[in-house]
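sorry for the late reply, my laptop died twice this morning and i had to redo everyting from scratch. anyway the thing you sent over, i finally got around to it. pasting the sequence first so we're on the same page, its 186 residues, then the predicted structure underneath. double check i copied it right bc i was rushing
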Amino acid sequence: MPESNSKKPYIAAVSGSMRETSSNTRVLLAATSLLQGAYDIRLSDHIQTLPPFNPDSDHDHSQAPLPVKQWRQFIAEASAVMICTPEYAAGIPGSLKNALDWLVSSGEFVNKPTAAISASPGQGGGSIALASLAGTLRIMTATLPDNCTHSIAFVSKKLTATGVDPETETELQQLATNLSKLTTTA
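ok and here's the structure:
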C-alpha cells in the first residue's frame, strides 16, 4: 500500500512480520481497511531497513541514520498506529523490537493512540507476543487501552481470499472503532 500525498490524517500500519505472504500483514490490512474512509492508511516497510539499535549511536537524534529518521517521522506524523505481530519464540520478532527500540528515547509514541494485534496459527493467538508488545508500548507511554488490543488464534483458518472471516472482521471493527475514538480525543 503506497504512501498517499493526501493531507488527510493517516494511520501508521506496522506489521511485525517481514514475510511476503504474512498472515499478520493480511490481518493488519483487513483491520486498517475498516478505517479507510476517515484516514489514509500507510503501511510501513521501515523495519526492514533499520540498522540494529545501539544506544551509543543514538545520543544525538539529529545524527541518527537516515532510515531511523524516516521511521521516527513516519510514526510522529501519524494520527494513530496499528501494529500486528506474530509470536516468535514466545515474544515479538527481533526486527519489530529493534524498530521500537529506536523510538524509546525520541518519544514518538508519547500519548500516541495505538492498537496492538497478535495473530498466530496456534491456539494461544500470539498472546505472549501481544503482552510483550503492549508492555513495550505502554512503557513508551503510547495510549493503548485494553480495548485496543486483540489476539487472534488459528489465524490461517480465519483468513479469506478478500480479508478475514465475518467473526474476525467484527472483532477487528470493534478494535478499529476504539482506536478511532482515541484519535478524536487526542
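The chain has six helices and seven strands.
thats about all i looked at so far, will dig more tmrw
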